[in-house]
Design brief:
single chain, alpha/beta, seven-stranded mixed sheet, three-stranded antiparallel sheet, Aminotransferase class V-fold PLP-dependent enzyme, PyrdxlP-dep_Trfase_major, transferase, Aminotrans_V_dom, transaminase activity
Amino acid sequence: MTASLDLTAVRAAFDGGRDYLAACTGGLPPRASRDALIADIMRSVTHGADAAAYSVVVEQTRQHAARLLQVAPARVAIGSQTSVLVSLIAASLPEGSEVLVPDGDFSSLVLPFVHRGGIRVRCAPLAELADAVRPDTALVAFSIVQSASGEAADHAAITAAARAVGARTLCDGTQAVGWLPVDASAFDAFVVHAYKWLCAPRGVAFLALKEEFADTLTPLHAGWYAGADPWQSCYGDAATLASDARRFDVSPAWQAFVGAEPALALFADADMSAVHRYTTGLAGRFLTEMGLPAPTSPSAIVTWTDADAADLARLQAAGITASGRAGRARLAFHVFNDQDDVDRALRALR
């Protein structure tokens, strides 16, 4: 992927960000997304919805996502939520399959397997996930960056262990894509919701699939937009589904994609290596000055034990938007943040 926007240009695309250290909860829209949404709602007041125009926006957004994930657009399905796309994979596993997941991973990744029935879900610590793969493991499902802790998975070791026993891999990049360069082709399936680090409206998610793995899946959510020609798939039972990953599409939430298209274009054009250095640099400085241990792999998400939520309360009292998860305080440093945000957070906690 060739970057056409340097870090300065990416940062300049945002108006907000001061004291907002919660991209891991929800990203802030860039100006272009705001403007696109306002223009769309103003048009709809007098002219209604233009389904054909919305479909163009959806397909542009799919192409941006494909560039970000370093896969072909034909390998990317669209959806509304992570759990919806994960349930597609859960439903297609053979009876009795074992699914291995990390302890405490995000529910939208885990619960579709837990409640599918007829399969076994086994948990292991993230750091030991590769060693926990067994010959009877059918699928390893994990987030590349953990939501509760910000810990990054050793995805190379996990995928190698899975391949050694013929197991498939499903990776959730929701807490990574937007600050961490990723190559979705390293996994059999890769899912990402765009409303966090990709700064899109909620309701836009993507599933990148290896072709041979896609062939094992049932298009459980097939509707009119999953057709080879969606405009010929609106009625009856004779519609031909798309031959590529589009057959797994969930009918798009049009307005959400209107806001998502400029945001995804921004990050698809960005120098993600520079974004990674910048965001993890802010997080690393915060860790150092707080005397907190550095993670094995640099992360843009910083967490520490805060069982009584006292530190979270201090941050909020100082006007800083942060979050708390699983008994830990959590800060996220994105491109719209800067060293002043680090300073204010440090002052609030000291």
